[in-house]
Amino acid sequence: MARLNPWSLQFDPPDLADWLWPAVLALGLAELFHYLRHGRRPARVGGRFVVCAAVVVLATTASAAGLLGPVRANPPAAAGLLGVLLVPALARAYGRTTRALGLAAWSALLALRLLAVAVVLVLLARPVVEYVTITRERGSLAILLDDSRSMTIRDVPPDRRRPEAAPPIARLEAVRAALSEQADALAGLAGEVDLCYFAFDAQARPLPAPKLTGGGEQTALAAALEQVRVALEAGGSQPVGMVVISDGRDNFSGDDEQRTAGESLAAGGIPLYTVGVGSELPVGQNRGLLARRLDCPESVAVLNRLPVRAEFVATGLAGTVVSIELLWDDAVVELQQVRPAGPVELLRVNLGHTPNAGGLHRVGVRGRAAGLAGPQGESGLSQFVRVTDEKVQVLYVDRPRYERAAIARALEAAAELRVTKVDLHRPGGGSPALLPRSGLEWKAYHVVLLGDVDREALTDATLGAIRDLVLEQGRGVAMLGGIRTLGSGPYDGSPLSGLIPVSLGAGGQLPGPVAFELTPSGRQHAACRLLPDAAGSMQLWKRLPAFDGADRLAGLAPAAEVLMHAPAGEPLLVVAEAGRGRAAAVAFDSTWRWSFADARGLEAQRRFWRQLVLWLANRRPEVWVAADRPRYDLTRLRSNLERVTLRAGVTEPTTGRMPDNASLTGTLTGPDGKARELRWVRSGDALTAQPSLTAPGEYHVRVSARAGDKPLGESETAFVVVTPDPELADPTADLENLRRLAARTRAAGGEYVPLEEFGRLIERLSTRKRAALTRHVRRENLVDDRPWLWFGVFVGLLTVEWIARRRLGLV
């Protein structure tokens, strides 16, 4: 049924209409001036002046009082007033002519000119005729049904009056039962409006009939409202309301969508009726422990504490002991126990571990609820952490003496070194128990310095661990001079024999003072470079005082290199490559005197020990690889909301850059155990790769680098791809979200009801008028729709006037 409203005339003046009022003012003042000079009534000029002054005062007073505001805001009124003021001006134009005119001729000419002015005023006012048609149409009522996995949680009592009489049923079963009970009422409502069913999880989709499976892995409630509204309007339906039956959980809509959900419905006058399903408190299946968050740095330096923060959601576990474990490579390294106090509680724990070995390690947190078996009572998260050895870790074993203190101060002054001191034979304490005990603990150190320590203080197991550290792990060791080590031969036959590049059975001392000089090899060796400038370095060496004495070194290893010797040729500093590592023998023990010589001597003493330790550390170009994050969400990867980005490279320790001739290859091994080649793209001083992943699990990346034919090393990293279950992250219903959504359309009639009141909601909807009134507006612009017609009329009127004036002899 349609009803046609009477037409209405409106005006849509252009911006040029703002100049109409100044034109009206100017023309009005001109008419007042003409009246003042040539008016006939009153006969005297003074009387006419009083009339003009009164008009000006009245107009000014009305304007100041705001009485002319509505008129000033009306351009069509200005156009009409301008036309009225133009009438006397145009009439005076024919007041005097070159020849006498009759009344008919004078009236005709004036009428033509006035019509032309009227056409101009119409063009300025731009009149529009508006026709409004109101149509009463049959409306559509959309019913949105939540079809996500959270609807399978069993927390709805089958009988609200006796909730303890039977075990809870699933939310989805409760919705099916409610729709079945109200089938007749819904059929009656369908006689008045078109019922449109939609199911929604991550997306909304139309349903020919209300059929649900509860298989949706995510819920986008806010986005579904807008999708359904757009779908109805695109299909030509006029929505008169929406009914949402859900537990209120929304874990997939964007932040903006959730913030503005329902606003477009409110703006269109469409009421939203939300029907809540489920319990806001833990009942039925709503009892369990869920690991929600694991935060820790992606890398940590060796021997530094790694802070770990974990969050667990405990539902229905009030008073239950929850044990939270920190796992390091699947071994429990810390345990905390907490006891939730509320029905739903977020448990936050701070844990930590100090790694003593570099490399890639798996860190994880695991929570266990006492007395609750199965997946509901145990939950965890994990990721990989890289333990770096960016600083050179130095273990200095010695006894209290001047040289020990001086060496320790020199090494501690170097920013790139981290020194761990063990003082054996220390008064009041000091024991071999302070030394590392396992190969893993020894592996944390890059350089071991053995000072003047009795042989009995170090077991064969300890010395064997040092030997393995050098030969197999590529680390460094130096034996320092004194009366208990190189000078007396007690270490002969120990596991260090053959590792230190001199005979450990040789004994004897060189009496002081012992002068020294660098060999040709020593002048070029990095361990003896005290200054960047070779000449300056040699000058500094010559300023240093002689040693108080030195051990007599003999039996040099075949690969040994003498860097410093006495004037008679006795070796004082011997170094050698040993297996994969490096070793040195230092015959002197009085470099502490250098620091007392002068400021340059202190600098030389610190520089010498720093350079020797850095050479022993045997640092090579570092091959590295890293992922841009430790964990990825497979759902976001599949929807292209995230990408896995791997970066790899080779860092040259002297320049900090990737060598120009370095090449890198890498493989990615997924949870299926199959390795596939990665495609790398150069990006600055690094290489990047972006593999596509389709399965959850652990992924290991291994890269190897070469410089020409020379291998530079290998590195690895790992990350985890998870499939979090956002539907069960919080098993309680979010009915407050449904209340907020309905409240946004309260002005249009929206409301929230629990599922047990769904029948009464259908009754109320049946009693309301559900017809939709559609207002159709048709606008006809009299000027813009036919501009050439108005232009032709204007030109035609001026042409006819000119012809008439010519025939009358006025042109």
Beta percentage is 25-35%
In what order do the strands lie side by side in the largest sheet?
20-19-21-22-28-27-26-24
**Tell me about the biggest sheet?**
8 strands, mixed
The residue-averaged pLDDT reads: 84
Helical content, roughly?
25-40%
User: What is the approximate shape?
Assistant: elongated
What are the low-pLDDT stretches, counting only 5+ consecutive residues below 50?
none
Q: Counting H and I runs of at least 4 residues, what is the number of helices? A: 21
Record keyword descriptors for this entry.
21 helices; alpha/beta; 30% helix; eight-stranded mixed β-sheet; 811 residues
General description of the model:
The chain is of the alpha/beta class. It contains 21 helices and 39 strands. The strands form nine sheets. It has an eight-stranded mixed beta sheet. Strands 8-7-4-9-10-38 form a six-stranded mixed beta sheet. The longest helix has 23 residues, at 103-125. The radius of gyration is 47 Å and the shape is elongated.
